[in-house]
Amino acid sequence: MRTTENHSTDWSRYWRAGDRPLEAMHAHFERHVYHRHSHETYSFGVTEAGAQSFTCRGASRTSVAGMLMVFNPDDPHDGHAATEQGFTYRMLHVGPDLVADVLAAAAGRPVGPPLFAEPVVRDAGAARAVRRLHRALLDGAPPLRRDELLDTVVAGLARRAGGRPVEPRAAGSAPEMARTARIAREVLHDRDQGEITAAELAAAAGRSRFAVYRSFHAVYGMAPSDYQRQLRLRAARGLLAAGRSPAQAAAEAGFADQSHLTRWFTRCYGVTPGAYRRAAGVGTSH
Prior knowledge:
The protein is an alpha+beta fold. It has helices at about 95-105, 125-140, 145-160, 175-190, 200-205, 210-220, 225-240, 245-255, 260-270, 275-280, and strands at about 1-5, 10-15, 20-30, 35, 40-55, 60-65, 70, 75-80, 85-95, 120.
């Protein structure tokens, strides 16, 4: 579920998963001041523009553009703009049980919860990973893509910034990886335009989510979610050539909406769905 609020120059967008403790916020604040509070979740954020200041763990902190913020569950903090221009930031809230599940899948065994030593971190790679996941959540990416990005963010942050590093378990021998990738590919084809999660692919292959991801990437050169998108783009091309409008093709091929199809169609094929439809001799798109 997604909501948007605007108050003068301040604005915010909020997204919440319906099936797991995962939330995302994108906001710009100039006037808003956070009262001291805490979350029951881990909170991972990136300052995109401006600067925000807050107190946490007995000290004043400032996060400027490009910095990563990391809060443990129940970390009390406040917050306000550090300049008149305000700040824009993205924040993820991930439940401790979900974090533990991701780390256990990565390590192949139960792993204690990570404790992050500093609430402000300079890590460009981790910041990019948080932004990718955040955009995927707010832009309505398919569940498989969201799962892959969530795994990457949680395991990566625990490995880079946490007090308890997690080393991913090996994906297996070459034959095991080939078998795992083949099964996952078959499932993606069988499900056609239907949604599927990383956990379902893992269950079908009898391997962990991380083993499926690494095996698939090693064998086919892309993530399962990228392969799924490729299948949907191919389906959309066929639908457009058969006379469907871009909006109809998007819906039938499994894209979130027409703009979602247009964005990826153009990235991969260099033309818009409407232009492709006209080139196929169908007529004017609508």
